[in-house]
Task: inverse folding
């Protein structure tokens, strides 16, 4: 368990009790996952690691990962409620994830970033794949 700021706790998500708050974080950011709560619930339950940031019993931030548990981790989503952004909550959520998957073994910590969030990931010490002479491919359905 980690503490960020005076009143924010970072802890493992318990889907049974935290799911409504997690859904609220997706809805608050207008992410399409909020329109598919049943599937989002599955994603939260099957995450390798799912962390919530909690302030006064309210879920204000969330992150989830997928991993093979050996070499690679994919950081699927990281979100903070708009009214709580800019307070270090995203930093603490992502730091907890990166610490959980040490680079000595997990040599691929990857994610796909919204353009607007690029600066955040750079601030967190992450590097766009192009800097390594790599590229990334995706097959996606836009909505
Ligand atoms: C991106 C997000 C998770 C960042 O969380 P946050 O709690 O607002 O960020 P923090 O306050 O912890 O910021 C940490 C550092 O990153 C910087 N930062 C945060 N968001 C940034 C952005 N969009 N662009 C550039 N820098 C950013 C902060 O200024 C801060 O820098 P500092 O070290 O100089 O103080 C949050 O803004 C969010 O939920 N956005 C909407 C959802 C989203 O886009 N998620 C990412 C999808 S790829």
Result:
């Amino acid at each position: 368990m980690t503490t960020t700021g005076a009143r924010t706790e970072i802890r493992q998500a318990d889907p049974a009790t935290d799911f409504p708050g997690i859904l609220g974080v997706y809805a608050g950011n207008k992410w399409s996952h909020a329109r598919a709560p049943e599937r989002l619930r599955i994603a939260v339950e099957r995450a390798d690691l799912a962390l919530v940031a909690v302030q006064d019993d309210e879920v204000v931030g969330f992150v989830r990962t997928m991993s093979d548990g050996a070499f690679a981790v994919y950081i699927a989503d990281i979100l903070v409620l708009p009214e709580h952004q800019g307070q270090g909550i995203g930093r603490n959520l992502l730091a907890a994830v990166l610490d959980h998957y040490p680079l000595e073994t997990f040599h691929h910590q990857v994610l796909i970033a919204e353009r607007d969030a690029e600066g955040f990931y750079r601030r967190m010490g992450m590097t766009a794949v192009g800097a390594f002479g790599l590229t990334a491919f995706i097959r996606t359905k836009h909505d």
Q: What stands out?
A: Strands lie at 2-4, 8-12, 49-55, 58-67, 72-80, 108-110. Residues 2-132 form a domain with the Aminopeptidase fold (CATH 3.40.630.30).
